[in-house]
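Typical record is below.
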Amino acid sequence: MAKFIFSMQSLLSLKSRMEEQKKQEFGEAINKLEQEKSFLEGLNMEKEHTLLKLRESVNGKISPTDFKNFNNYVEVLKKRIVAQMGVIIETEKYVEKKRLELVEATKERKMLDKLKEKKHEEYIEEEKKQEQKINDEIVSYKYSSL
């Protein structure tokens, strides 16, 4: 019985490697998104902390210069938060792009896997037919020599 050889095995191997690469890229994109969200959370916490300090300072004595500095810092934080939200939106688009690439790579690999499986089943069926033919010839030969 000859060994089964899939004629497109090299293509299947290439598609499998591409799928693994896409999985890695997708994972890296998700990690980047999480980092950006974490950074945004840090900015929001810093803004809240600064506003709390400003409120506490207003209850006591605060100079107009310090009040202006607090106010300016809060405005800077607000602008950074808005900018970071934009970064997150772009990163989410990138994650979606990588997800779609992974889905496509997976489809291509699965299609070749199914083709390989079908070809293997055809090969096994053909081998069974050949074996049956040989068995029939042996039986026919033995029967005719009696």
User: Anything to note?
Assistant: The chain is about 90% helix and 0% strand.
